[in-house]
Write a structure and sequence with these properties.
With 133 residues, the protein is of the alpha+beta class. The chain has 3 helices and 5 strands; from the N terminus they run E-H-H-E-E-H-E-E. Helix 1 runs antiparallel to helix 2 and helix 2 runs antiparallel to helix 3. The radius of gyration is 15 Å and the shape is globular. 20% of the residues are buried.
Length: 133
């Protein structure tokens, strides 16, 4: 399955519908579906809000495929190069008010998914997230 959407906040509802469709098709239980929804929403939000200069219109692509044992999501965008997997995990022992901004989203994703990898292919960021079913 594939969804192409704009880098606009209101597109998050389309991403949520796409995720519901993926989870329904795979007959995932509500708990698993909610966790996957959270992980994908975190990464999509980061791309929408931070990958492009203000006023830039761009397409973002999210694909989902499964072999029955593993579900793979690939999030692709042509925004500025950024590897979220290279960011040091947020220190959960530090008071949130004193913690450096950023890092919580990717930490959440790393805890939900079994594998998260990034690569820059030409002018495209590609974040691959895999979850064993």
């Amino acid at each position: 399955m594939k969804l192409t959407f704009k880098n606009e906040e209101q597109e998050l509802s389309r991403v949520a519908e796409f995720m519901e469709s993926v989870c329904d098709k795979l007959q995932l239980d509500m708990h698993a579906a909610m966790k996957l929804q959270l992980a994908i929403e975190e990464m999509v939000s980061n791309v929408i809000f931070y990958a492009y200069p203000e006023g830039t219109n761009a397409d973002i692509t999210l694909t989902a495929e499964s072999d029955g044992e593993e579900l793979t999501f690939v999030l692709s965008d042509s925004g500025k190069p950024f590897d979220p997997t290279a960011k040091e995990d947020a220190d959960l022992d530090v008071n949130p008010m004193d913690r450096e901004q950023g890092g919580m989203g990717i930490l959440i994703v790393k805890n939900i998914m079994n594998e998260v990898t990034y690569q820059r292919l030409g002018d495209t960021n590609q974040l691959t997230m895999k979850k064993k079913l």
